[in-house]
Every structure is written in structure tokens, then in C-alpha cells.
Amino acid sequence: MQPAETITDHNDERIADYRALTDVELRTRWEPPHGLFIAEGELVLRRALRAGYRIRSVLIDAKRVAQLDDLPIDDAPVYAGDQATLEAITGFHVHRGVLASFHRKPSLDAADILRSAHRIAVLEDINNHTNVGALFRSAAALGMDGVLLSPTCADPLYRRSVRVSMGEVFAVPYARLEPWPEALGRVQEAGFTVLALTPAVDAVPIQTLSAAQRARPALLLGAEGPGLTERAQRAADARVVIPMHRGVDSLNVANAAAVAFWELSRGS
After folding, report:
1. Whose CB has fewer CB within 10 Å in the chain, the N or C terminal residue?
2. Three-class DSSP category at 249
């Protein structure tokens, strides 16, 4: 790693990538058009490097510079400042002590994922970054080979999503699926059975799916609260439910996804 350059002015143009990280609207306008994303924390930074993402720069608490000495990033600048300066730049207390700006990779096409995957998740209108991050972490851990996102889903590489996923968003290939929901037909044409997860009382208990339905499942998940749209449910091959007890009607979408991922990968 290069020697750190000290930053004392939060308006320094060298650290423009890190400005106002808590402003979701601003970051949404800034990051994808500039082809970058922000990784927070040493673990996530190292996982991004291991996944082949090219680093732009590092912003670190001056007290922690030595802990990153072994990183293979000799071609990227390293900026260091005290906590007050980092907070003035980013808009929050950087308690993990390290941020890094990375170049995004070229976007995948849904066809790339449909060709190689055996089990996928398909997300409709999930725009909560925490849920997106948790879904990716579960997908990586529980045997899903890819994720397809409707056009209005949150950016998986937004800082909070990356952080909640613990960097596992880098391990699961993903792509946008559009037009929505008509493009679900492409998923079916690729040999997948689209399974719409819903708390509806007439849905099929997920553990009773046939071997044919489990062979290449595409689990369709909706946003917290509204759930899946009627159009998406009508496009599915089957509607499935996780049986509930004690009068509980549903789980948080990320928790429900983890249960369903485990069930669909069971025995594989």
C-alpha cells in the first residue's frame, strides 16, 4: 500500500468519492454514473479486492493506517484523517475506520445468469438497502447461484447493502430483469420454475414442492409490506408459502428468503 496522504479539509477534491455518504439520493445520482461504489470496513474491502474489483482510493482513520500495509493496492492513493475530518466528509461516524472507493464491473445480462445457474432469486421492487444486503448474504450462504432484480430494486452495490451483506454481494452474480414482469417469461423459457413466495392462505407449503419444481427454482420475492404484485404472481408457475405458527402472518423478506433458500437447496 502507498504511504498515506493526510487530509485535513473535508472539501478537498481528492476525496470527492466519499462526500455525504448518508445522502441516499445524492449517492444514487453520483455512484452508478461515475462507475464507482463504496466499501466500508476492512473485511468488505478485502473481499472486494479478492472478487477482482479495481480500487480507486482508500480513506482511512489515521490511527489505522498500519493495519492495511499488506494490501496489494500500490496504484491507488490512500488518504488518512482523524475521525472529525472523516465524519465531516462522509456525514457519519466511520466507526470501522476504513472506506474504499472501487470501480464497478460491467453489468451482467440476465441471460448470462440464466445460462449457468441452477437456483436463483428474483427480487421485485425491493428498495430497502438493508434487506437487499441481507438477501445477498443468505443467497451466497444457502446455495443460490444468482439474483435477478426488477428495474426498481435498490442498487446491490450501495454502501449499506454491501456492508450488510458482509461483502457477499461480490460473490453472487446479479443482473436487472426487464421489462417487468413480462421478462419472467424469459426465466421460464430458460427452464426455471418461477415460485412466488407469498403468505396467501391458498399457497402451496414450500416443503411440499415436487422434485420437478425443485429442479431449477426461481424464487420470486416482493418488497416488505406490499409483497409481490398481482401481475408478478400471475406470471409465476406456483405460489408458495412458509407455514407460520402462533398467528404470525409473515416474516421479514430477508428472513423469509433465508428460510426458502435453505429449503430449495436442501439435499443438494
Report:
1. C
2. coil
